Amino acid sequence: MLGGWHDDEIVASCTLVVIPNLTRGGMSYALIENVVTAASHRKRGFGRALLERAVSIAWQHGCYKAMLLTGSTEPATLAFHRGVGFEQNKTGFQIRRLPVRI
Fold it and tell me: Are the beta carbons of 21 and 28 closer than 8 angstroms?
């Protein structure tokens, strides 16, 4: 988990997992989820800096790609992810043991 701090307070966080892989010559890939910035600190660069750091760590670990998953369909959230450099170009599926929180 990565955190973004401001005045000794965590204001942004995300989960980064580096996953070993047998394809792509054995190169790992990264998964980024649960990207959250406190409402009071949005649009101030914390989320962008955090995602850029997560991708940098993925590259340092030799990952060939970094995937970002979000459950959000909010246009502003999707635009934010695209603005950091992510492309929305795959189809995702999931199966859950627990129901989706509402």
Answer: yes
Nearest 10 degrees: Cα torsion 77, 74, 72, 88? -60
14-48 b/e (C-beta count within 10 Å ≥ 16 → b): bebebeeeeeeeeebbbbbeebebbeebeeeebbb
Count other Cβ atoms within 10 Å, centred on residue 51: 25
Torsion of CA 43, 79, 77, 33, to 10 degrees: -100
Per-residue pLDDT of the chain (102 residues), as tens digits, is: 999 999 999 999 999 999 999 999 999 999 999 999 999 999 999 999 999 999 999 999 999 999 999 989 999 999 999 999 999 998 888 898 988 777
State how beta strands 9-19 and 2-6 pair: antiparallel
Consecutive H or E run containing 60: helix 46-60
